[in-house]
Amino acid sequence: MKHPAGSVWQRPERAARGPAPEYSRARIAAAAVAVADAEGLAAVSMRRVAAEIGAAPASLYRYVTSRDDLIDLMADATSAEFDLSRPATGEWLDDLIRLGHQIRGIHERHRWLADLTPDKVIPGPRTLDVLEYSLSLLADLDAPAQAKMEAIVMLGAVITIFVRNQPAGTDSTQADAQRRAAGAGYLATVLAKGEHRHLAVAVTAMAAAGAASAGQDEAQKRSAAEDRLLRRVLSGLLGQ
Amino acid sequence: MKHPAGSVWQRPERAARGPAPEYSRARIAAAAVAVADAEGLAAVSMRRVAAEIGAAPASLYRYVTSRDDLIDLMADATSAEFDLSRPATGEWLDDLIRLGHQIRGIHERHRWLADLTPDKVIPGPRTLDVLEYSLSLLADLDAPAQAKMEAIVMLGAVITIFVRNQPAGTDSTQADAQRRAAGAGYLATVLAKGEHRHLAVAVTAMAAAGAASAGQDEAQKRSAAEDRLLRRVLSGLLGQ
DNA sequence: ACTCTTTGCGAACACTGTATCCAGTACCGT
DNA sequence: ACGGTACTGGATACAGTGTTCGCAAAGAGT
């Protein structure tokens, strides 16, 4: 066999025989996360991460069978930032919203998470713990297990949308910002032609709302609006 | 200036002077879409698309300034497949669901659409037409324009999730399927350890539902379940 | 007919992920 | 104690990738 089968998580981190590894998955993942936080997911190349920890590029493949594996490691590393200690309060919607706030915080710390395709990442142990915790918040709710799962997936998806539509603190990559601006420019020229009546009013409405939330405590208003939207979606999915 | 500024859509397709272009954006986009349909988005490289239309790799850059531009072209090309002729019926929820069915159909024909990051693609003219049409379906509904926009974005996002969680007809790439299987394997070993009670019941429930929809007319049931979920989400967002 | 702009393209650059091979090392079973 | 074994880190190489540059040819406008 060429590669030891299965995901990163099934392979033992340390081999039975042979010299002690010089690095570790955790250290590699941390380095990769740091690079992604600072320069975006595209900057996370095997060579870059290897250089960051002082290793040769090919050495990483002793810890990881592919770049996808590395990204699995990164994703699970962020899942470790959840606080899963707070038990269910009995108000499942509030609990879910609170969980949403955690997700949002983590997404803001690691904006590259929004670039991941959720179902291409193999969930690691910490991610599965988060999933278990999320479901535990809904344990007392009388709903089919499938609906609960859907609601949790939805929670993540909606928050991803929130984060994406939020102007990045330090604007992602310069090229990305340029593309965004180009898109806005084209939209303006199309709207100026006068067709697209409904789109025009929607765009101006959204622009007004965006300008309103430019202030600092206006960010709270935006957050409140997001909470309201989340409540609607979740209670639409799970509510009676 | 190095590059003519702005998105693909603002630049004129044909230059005023000089020889007539040998190819066209439409033809390039069509070739790229064909490649993506058959072999996935990763197979869409400049060299590949160029070869497909019988051009040299560097020639594509006369029509497109980057691969991102090419993908903009591809995305907008799929938007042309919408039927925007059917006017609003007065039942906005039904109209939205019908629109959802169109989205779903297009996503099934072009599974790579699920790999796109929606807000990194600059919407082209056809996509803006679809947006205008979508909003027109909600014209008579008394709701803030922003909420309507959110609902439409949500509609697309939910359907993307549907499509992703659907076993691909001809399974995407072989490597992708292998990773999926690896993930399932790891999940099984974790669940076997006995912790993750809630996750265990959820997973078995989803597996049972998945097995049930293996049959042919059982696919209709799944579709019905999706419609129900969509209705809940949308009426949760826009309903009174 | 002449000029200019634009086209198509060969070649090259700076990357990327990854496989292969090799020397050295530390454990295991004897 | 000591092979043999299984591992480690790494140098090198390969097949791709997106993209740029410079240049010959060719069509449109004057």
Automatic annotation (TrEMBL), chains A, B:
DNA-binding region residues: the ranges are 45-64
Q: Tell me the Gene3D superfamilies matching this sequence.
A: Homeodomain-like, Tetracycline Repressor, domain 2
Keyword annotations of the record = DNA-binding, Transcription, Transcription regulation
PROSITE patterns reported in the protein's UniProt record:
HTH_TETR_2 (PS50977)
Q: Which InterPro entries match?
A: Homeodomain-like_sf (IPR009057), HTH-type_TetR-like_transc_reg (IPR050109), HTH_TetR (IPR001647), Repressor_TetR_C (IPR004111), Tet_transcr_reg_TetR-rel_C_sf (IPR036271)
Gene Ontology MF term list: DNA-binding transcription factor activity; transcription cis-regulatory region binding
Spell out the protein name for this chain.
TetR family transcriptional regulator
